[in-house]
Write the structure tokens for this entry.
Amino acid sequence: MERQLLLASTLCFLVAVAHTLATLRDGVFRPRRFNFIAIALGFVFQSGFLSVRGHALGRCPITNLFEVFIFLAWSVALIYLLVGPAYRLSLMGAFTAPLVLLIQAFALLAPIDTPHSSRVPANPWLEFHASMSMIAYGAFALACVAGVMYLVQERQLKTHQIHSIFYHLPPLTNLFAAITRLLWLGFGLYTAGLISGFFTGGPLPRVKMICAFAVWIFYGGILQGRHFHRLAPKRIATLCIVAFSAAVSVLWAINFVSQTRPA
Amino acid sequence: MNVFCVGISHHTASVETRERYAGRVFGEDSRAALGCDEVLVLATCNRVEVYASAGKPIATGDIVRFLEDCELPGTKPVDAFYRHDAEGCARHLFRVVAGLDSMVIGETEILGQVKKAYAAARESGNAGGQLHRLFQRAFRVAKQVRSSTDITRGAVSVGSVAVDLAEKIFGDLEERRVLILGAGETSERTARSLCSRGVNDIRVSNRSPERGKDLADLVGGRSIPFQDWREQCREVDILISSTSADEPLLTPSLLAPMLRDRRDRPLFIIDIAVPRDVAPEVNEMDGVYLYDIDALQSIAARSLATRRQQIAAAETIIAEHVSDITARSGQHPRGESPAAVDPPVLEQRAIRASQ
């Protein structure tokens, strides 16, 4: 049942991506509500999967890398559905759907859904810590998406090569404001997740702590550069992409360490 | 469908000819004088057209003579008038509202003008059920063409391209500050376009202070002494340059210290001077977007080409609607029943055509 829900969800994101590619191939990019609806439907199926898995586990389903990736994809879709209306809806969906599809397809294809031999006891602080961190990752992912949109728009403006997509992308200043807001949102949530990690009661693995703090410092550095105008908007957009790629890689490391002590 | 259309446009007559017919006022007695059941006149700078419905045949000459009633004595009638009947009239009107018959393909001003003409005809009691159905359908066609094709996409003049780009950099232009360097004609046109989108802080700096002040007064801005223009670059968001300087006035080394004070604010430079006022290397600086006259004209030309490519898709939408209203009026030209072609189906077909 849960596998079918996840496959249905992945299919929704695949349809959204295929739709975007088809419109891009025709050279006339016209955003519609299609992407938003497809992502919303995919989100419903994702929620269904997480709910079924959560009930089976008796706790928040973030116990292995597979669940972490699905939870991350769910967070990205959630943040998009929450903040998407502030942008040109379907267009941000056109950039978000491929990211979610990539994360989810990887989770489905890679042999990372390793069940735990014993039932993991529920720990509210641990679940709060993990879920906050994952939702923060969702905000960072959306900041990364907005960063890609910024760079696409900036490149068109710099090179004078104006394509159909140019007319559907938001203005540079609006995109930059969106990046900043998403970074602050993600950073706030991540900080809350990080602090709550100290209240989980168990020993804190060193590698996990170093990785978590490295991500926190990276994003803190970007925000500091933004706040004091030390980084140009284009650099911040680029760093959002680099930081998110690094953060996803770090997730792997954290999970590797957590295999002996599930999150 | 008993509707027909008689008129002249920029395709068939010069502006001198068109203006001879543009002043005719259609009062409440117009229908009786023409022998029509309903009548509507559309008079714009590019066309003068009469849309009417009548139970009996009305000759084109009668309409033309009626239009000529108000013209100056001694002028000769013209043979530039065209006539479209029934579905031909519908097709023509749909093409007009969709901007396909306009001088600038895809321009949207015509839709507002047609709506105004229709409202006036309704108010005066000259437009009834037949014209109501026709024009309401025309407005739907225009909306569908605009939403399903790229016929209105992109600006096709230098001024409007500059404004489009400014909006894509800054979003809302209301709070933006503009400096016009050199009070040329193109600068003036571009400044006017920016004003039309809400810009209200315009500064003009010209070698000749008198001419600078004249332009500042014209666009509701203020004049700045020419020697102070560089200082203004720290504050302004958009710089329009069109001086007759032989050497570039703005280079990366000159601009770099000014950019340090601008923090994250982008600077949009429109260099319409020939030879250019701004060194091309300036475009490589972070946060600076430089467009010269060639770049602006090239974007305008590409937009026009895109619009032309969309004509076929727009014509498909129009043809579908013409078939539909013909079928609904009982003629069933393609064997389709009146309910066979619903607007969503038409839209889908149009989307396929545009792809």
